[in-house]
Structure formats: C-alpha cells, structure tokens
Amino acid sequence: ASIRACSEMLADQEADNEQTQREFCEIIQEQAKRLNRLIDDILNISRIESGVLSVNLEPRDLAPILDEVIAGLRPQALEKQIRLERQADSESIRGYFDHDMMYHAIMNLMNNAIKYSYAGQTVTIRAGRTEEEMYVEVEDQGAGIPEESLPQVFDKFYRVRAHQEMAGGTGLGLHLVKQIVENVHGGEVTVKSAVGKGSVFRIVIPACPNVHPPAGSSIQKCTIRN
Fold it and tell me: Does the N-terminal or the C-terminal CB of the chain have fewer CB atoms within 10 Å?
C-alpha cells in the first residue's frame, strides 16, 4: 500500500520539491525491502515444508554469523537506542550447519528482540558449544510474551495480540526459525518469557549431524576441528 501510494503521488507530480521526492523514494525503498523479506520467508518455509530445499551442511564457524547479524541490525538498534551485546564461549564456535539458513534464523530472533524492546534496554546474543551440541541464545529485556501465548509463538502467521500495536509483522519469522532449526538442522528452538521482563529464545543444534541427522542429509562422517 505504501509503495502504491508513494509511486502514484510521484507519478502525479504531487511531490513538488526535491526533499519530498526523496522522502517518497525512501519509503518505497524501505517497503520494497520489507516485501522482499516477506517473499523470502514464504519461499523458504515452502521449500522446507515440501522437502525441496537444498541444504548445505558443512563444517563452519558460527562466530562470524553473530558479527554479520549484529552489523546488519546495528542501525535499527541505534535508531531505537538499544544496545546490542555479543557473548561467546570462545572465539571460534565450530560445527556443521547451513550458513544461509542459520543466518536467517538468528537474524529473525535478533530482529524480533529489537522490535519488542524499549529505548535504553539491551539485547544480548550468546553462543557456544558442548561436545555434541551448539547453542545460540537471544535475550531481551522488553515487552515479554504472555504465558497463554507461548505455546503458539512458533505457529505460522501467529502474532501475540498484545504486541500488534508495538510493531508490525507477518507472524512468519518465528515459524521460519522453527523450520530451519528443527527440519533443516535436526535441533530444537525454545522460549522462556515473562510479561514486562523480556524473553530468551534458545536454538540448540547438533554440532555433528551424525548425532541427530536432519532429513535428507547425506553426510556419512563428521569431523570437527576447533
């Protein structure tokens, strides 16, 4: 709707100065990016659910993904005056996972944490691994999720009613996270939350896919070097 309205006003020459034209173009660009993210989420969910997603499980380091996500979301956090904090058990956190899928999962959790936090608060991302598992935690100090909504937060298109005025969304982000973690990586995603105190989302996946191989995985041998 925003793209349509702004493009129509530009076409009708209702933007009578350079500043207004620039503002309309910025709105169009931002909403186009949002639409692109929505389409990507829908396509990724459909590919995972239909079993046609090409999964690239390779030995990788999780730490650079944390840096990528933080760098991508820093402008959004600065705009809301929210501090981003990164914590890791070690400089290198190695395991088997699909880079793009894991990036999308962590990005969605961090984006949600920022959206439902208030100015002056901190969003923390933690990561580490044990002998058999890797984990990522995203913790915020924000609005929190009502207890009755917790069983449904990962459902497709579900949005917490109390949050709908606080931030926009489609209800696809957390469902995509669940699909990526459970169906692509054979792991588990959980949430702990309290209204007014914030939420902690936790991703756990096998460090070696032989422990709990995802459907369709063709990896026969797992060797991880720290």
Answer: N
Please tell me the distance from the alpha carbon of residue 191 to that of residue 124, in angstroms, as a whole number.
15
Rounded Cα distance between 83 and 128, Å, is 21
Written as one string, the DSSP assignment of 83-120 is: EEEEEESSS--EEEE-HHHHHHHHHHHHHHHHHT--TT
Over residues 39-83, the pLDDT tens digits come to: 887 888 888 887 777 788 899 999 999 999 999 899 889 999 999
DSSP 40-81: HHHHHHHHHHHT------EEEESHHHHHHHHHHHHHHHHHTT
Backbone angles phi, psi at 53, to 5 degrees: -70, 130
Tens of pLDDT, residue by residue over 96-136, are: 999 999 999 999 999 999 999 999 999 999 999 988 999 99
What are the two backbone dihedrals, phi and then psi, of residue 139, each rounded to the nearest 5 degrees?
-120, 135
120: alpha, beta or left? (left if phi > 0; alpha if psi -120 to 50): left
What the block records as the tokens of 154 is 């990962």
pTM for the whole thing? 0.79
